[in-house]
């Protein structure tokens, strides 16, 4: 049943919002903090509290507590990306629940799995907990992307997505700032930090469940597998984005610990700088995308990444120092702020009813490289410079498609 805000104002503004169904147009009469945009911002802030904390502690935790080497870290990230590879399963779940419900549930699962991470300091235990948190993370990201493109007007999308990126960076900044200021000062344990960050994410997910109405999107979404030829470039760019993300998350972060001996507070401080920069530049990049268009923004990103990855390889070939490695790591992360240009590109070319199923298909395509790249390099005597030098050729083909 869909309740009109005008006729049922008490119900709409009351506490039992989860029992109310409103159209996107009707939500405009709600207070700003109960509108769809604010819900997106709130969930965007909740996710990094768990995920960014997990990521900041990961390399030090698995190396120091579980004795991981490059082989185990490769397998860990392969397992972590399997739910992303299976994100197409979101289409099946949409037959039994709405996207909004799935997003909140996945967010809660991410928080719960993060909270218990330190309880299992073994190879098998870490893999199992990582799998659970990854299901929450990837299914949330899949559905959140779909909801953003459905709930945000095309004309405002670049700017709003820029602000959403900035909010996510702010939440990560909060998590990393807490670690930098308290990790050594208060002698915190892995268990305390994981429990705190995961618990906060679960609490926000519970608030999102009870405080917000069920929101009907303007266009009913297809609940079938969608793979269209005219989206070929979007699929190709998603594939390469998955490879690039793994190079950054897995190998670049591992390089800072393995090659330069970074400790928890040092890795976290580096992340801190990254997210301060993202908070500043993401809204500006949103304006730039709105003004100059997605094609120019994406070409700028890809050319910059080729230069960054070549320089990463030079660290191993020529023995370049830690200051350059830190600068490259920060610059690499800044380019992530342009990732929403790929979302708005798809929003402009897609049929409205294709957004949800294509988001699931695109996430699966994105994770093909993410699943196989870490394990492939881990089991084939990989050298850390290999991912950086092999990436540049593939982007040339994708750049051709943007012309």
Instruction: Spell the H/E element sequence.
Output: HEHHHHHHHEHHHHHHH
What structural class is derived from the secondary structure elements?
mainly alpha
Q: Separation of termini?
A: 47 Å
Shape: globular
In the CATH classification, which architecture applies? Up-down Bundle
Radius of gyration: 21 Å
Strand order of the largest sheet: 1-2
β content, as a range?
Answer: under 5%
Query: How many strand units?
Result: 2
Task: Identify the CATH homologous superfamily.
Answer: MFS general substrate transporter like domains
Low-confidence stretches: 1-14, 386-395, 397-402
CATH fold title: Growth Hormone, Chain: A
What is the domain tally? 1
- Please outline the major beta sheet: 2 strands, parallel
Structure summary:
This protein has 403 residues and is an all-alpha fold.
What can you tell me about this protein's structure?
Helices cover 73% and strands 1% of the residues. It has one domain: MFS general substrate transporter like domains (Growth Hormone, Chain: A, Up-down Bundle). α2 runs antiparallel to α6 (123-151) and α2 (36-64) runs parallel beside α7. Residues 1-14, 386-395 and 397-402 have low confidence and may be disordered. The protein has a two-stranded parallel sheet with strand order 1-2. With 403 residues, the protein is an all-alpha fold. The protein is globular and about 55 Å long. It has 15 helices and 2 strands. The longest helix is centred in the first third of the chain and has 29 residues, at 36-64.
